[in-house]
Amino acid sequence: MTEPVKQTAPMRRKFMTTAGVAGAASIGFPAIATSQTVTSLRFQSTWPAKDIFHEYANDFAAKVNAMSGGRMKIEVLPAGSVVKAFDLLDGVSKGTLDGGHGVLAYWYGKNSAMALWGSGPAFGMDANMLLSWHEYGGGRALLDEIYKSLNADVQSFVYGPMPTQPLGWFKKPVTKPEDLKGLKYRTVGLSIDVFTAMGLAVNALPGAEIVPALDRGLLDAAEFNNATSDRLLGFPDVSKICMLQSFHQASENFEILFNKKKYDALPEELKSVIKYSVQASSADMSWKAIDRYSKDYSELQASGVKFYKTPDSVLQAQLKAWDGVIDKKAAENPMFKKVLDSMRVFAQRAGRWQNDTLVDYKMAYRHYFSAKK
Description:
The chain is of the alpha/beta class. The protein folds into two domains: 39-161 and 252-290, D-Maltodextrin-Binding Protein, domain 2, CATH 3.40.190.170; 168-251 and 309-356, D-Maltodextrin-Binding Protein, domain 2 (3-Layer(aba) Sandwich). The chain has 13 helices and eleven strands.
């Protein structure tokens, strides 16, 4: 009586295994593989390891690694590990690196139009509106066209809307446009042209080199990005004056690059993981930035740093200089004009909606906190 039981048990197990796989397939669930190939990618950022921007790059990699279920592993190295910060695009295009994390303004020397994704007032759009233009207003196709014209073998993902960047760190407060004339100043992208037009002597330096240059007197003033990055890079060690608000980089986003051959070779499901990891990272970065930047802003104030609002006269001078710069660049570079025209059309519509719609949040802030300042 025991023998038939021994025979039917494995048969029953076989039936259940077969039925389970068939059932999973019938409702769209893939069968679980017993082994999988791991795609390992080596990335480099354009940021020092201590900068929060490098942390953002690692955040993106962590999301891809987790969401891929272990099928993809991205390792992110800090600036200079394989190539110099400003050589990242070439390094990714040539396959020296599988990918990277930076900003489009760094490739300004290859085509000035690329700086429009980060430099200037963007016709009154903030960084999130600029990202909307990129995704839904034609920006992505224009950027792909630029990369194709450069024979850059890369797949680009623009993400991560940045808050308005400060005018920068100075030896004394800036009270009028004339205070800027003759200063040795650091910035990047089309901002170089703007500040040059305003009478400054501009030098483009990567993040890690700015504070040493200020310390040695090679620069009189400089901008980088935000309270957290500036604090970590050591700006408060060489200056106690920071001017807030500026149009030179009021609407910038980050960029994630993949070597296109490596990206195209990925299965579609991993491409989807990358796409949605970019979107998740964009949102997460903007939330983290509010938390971290506000904390470091308070701590910098407590440590003796004095923050001043950039005078409206300086902001107006920036807009006037910007007008001259974009007129000149548009005449020289048809692609620059094409991007500019696309941005202008989107900004007029989206800006009108946003300006008419958003309430003045400062009113509510003053209502609750003005007595406690």
